[in-house]
Design goal:
about 170 residues; alpha+beta; Aspartate Aminotransferase, domain 1; six-stranded antiparallel β-sheet; 6 strands
Length: about 170
């Protein structure tokens, strides 16, 4: 995978969610990604697809749910080109107030619809939600001090005798 491809934090978080599912794998193609289970697609990551300027994740939903989601939340959901009429819905990742738990629920629901029954039963939504938790940024600057605080003007401690020896009188 190219380094420029992985710079987008949204894709990195989506990858963690999708790849936390059993036998899930990813195929990369320029600015897009396809997530598969066995040879079936369960999610797409689209970045400026056909020049629309939208960053989103497309997932399979139950029949009719895509229309309901788009009607209820048109600022967040939309009907993706070509696959929307076949039961897919897209959730925008480029809008403010994005709930990554909602992304995880949508992806896991899509996975359960697409995956073979035995794998679908193994899908753990809590594990996918845990993968949605943001990665803490590494600290810059001095390392925090560990151990007891330094004390000034304290006399040195006497060494204890090694184990098995008696102290000399």
């Amino acid at each position: 995978m190219k380094k420029a491809y992985t710079k987008d934090g949204r894709l990195a978080r989506l990858m963690k969610i999708c790849l936390a599912l059993p036998e899930a794998r990813q195929e990369a193609a320029s600015r897009h990604a396809t997530f598969l289970v066995r040879k079936e697609v369960f999610a797409y990551y689209l970045n400026d697809h056909h020049g629309d300027g939208i960053v989103s994740v497309c997932c399979k939903v139950l029949p009719g749910d895509n229309e309901v989601l788009v009607a209820a939340h048109p600022a967040r959901f939309y009907m993706p080109a070509y696959i929307g009429p076949r039961g897919w819905v897209a959730l925008r990742l480029d809008v403010g107030g994005l709930d990554w738990n909602e992304v995880a629920e949508l992806v896991v629901g899509s996975y359960k619809l697409i995956a073979p029954k035995r794998l679908a039963l193994l899908a753990n939504p809590d594990q996918a939600k845990a993968a949605a938790v943001p990665i803490p940024k590494p600290r810059t600057g001095p390392r925090p001090r560990t151990g007891p605080p330094a004390r000034k003007n304290e006399p040195r401690r006497k060494r204890s005798a090694p184990a098995g020896r008696k102290p000399a009188d």
